[in-house]
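Protein in question reproduced for absentees:

***
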Amino acid sequence: MTIPNMITIMRFVLVPGVVLAMLQGRWDWAFAGFLIAGISDGVDGFIARHFNQFSQLGAYLDPMADKLLLVSVFVVLGFISELPLWLVVTMVSRDALIVCAVVLSTVMTHPVEMKPLFVSKANTAVQIGLAAVVLGELALAVDLDPLRPALILLSGVLTVASAAAYLVAWLRHMSGYGEGSKPDT
């Protein structure tokens, strides 16, 4: 058990607290928890890189903790009408599509190694920014109106683009393209 893994596990523990704070309208606590999770994500990555504390477990846990927090925050923000439902449904559907593709390829004994694509990293960064803006607006009683609609639109476009890119990569993998052999015809 490495220090980065312990920090990541703390992020898992933060998720119910952030969600509960949101559902109770405690935006200050929700925003603080979201910020703590974000900062701790950077800290665990720094420690892993600079002190050679990488682990196989951490490679799986870290993105799971990030995704659990982000999906939970988006779902609650959609539920209370702070984010459009089409965006929340698109985000959750994209993540479900990726999970189903990974499970299916594993069941078919052709496991796929998921490597984050640039469009996916950009999508995650915009989604984190959007969640931080909305939580910050609610916690600090400020209006960042031109920013929120722009981030919503950009997040929607990047979510769809990311889903399409992963789908194409998965279909190529499953058909044998890009693995040094031609697909069966």
Q: What stands out?
A: The chain has a mean pLDDT of 93. Residues 115 and 166 are 9 Å apart (CA to CA).
